[in-house]
Amino acid sequence: MRAKSRPRKAAQSASGGKAKARAKVEIKARTPKARAKSVPSRTGADLRIESLRKILSERRREVMREIEGLIGTRIDDEMQRGIDSAPDVGDQALLDSERVRDISILEMRNRVRQQIDDALIRLEEGIYGLCADCGVEISEKRLKAVPFARRCVACQEKAELLEKIEREEEQSS
Description:
Blueprint: H1 2-29, H2 32-38, H3 44-83, H4 89-125, H5 140-145, H6 153-172
Helix pairs in contact: 3-4
C-alpha cells in the first residue's frame, strides 16, 4: 500500500509545483506594471470630458463663493441697520434700492449656478459640449468663456440675430 501512495504523493507534489508556478504568474500579472498595461489608456474624448468637468466645477465654485459673499454682506448690512437709528425717508429709499439691487444680483448668480448644474448633468449624459442646433462640438475656448453654452458660436449668432429681428417686429407692431 505504501508503494501506491508514494507515487500519488509524488504526482501531487509535481502538480503542486505547477500550481505554484501558475500562482507566481498570476501574482506577477497583478503587479502595477502588469495592471498599467491592462488598463486602457484615456482617449481624447475622456480627456476632453475631464477638462470640461474641471471647467464647470471651478466656475460653479466661483459662483457659489460670490453668492455666499453677497448673502454674508447682506446679512451684515441688515444687522448694522438694526443697530443704527431709524433712517429718514431718503435713507430708507436708498436702502430699499440697494436691497433690490442685491436681490437681482443674487438671482442672476443663482441662474448661472443652475445653468452650470444643468451643464454638469448634460456632461454626465454625454451631450455636454455639443451644439444643440447643429450637433458640432463646441470649442473648449468658448466653453471656458461660457461654461453653460448650449450652442457653437455660429449657431448662437444666428439665434441672437433671430431674437433681435423678432423683438424689432414686436416693437413695430
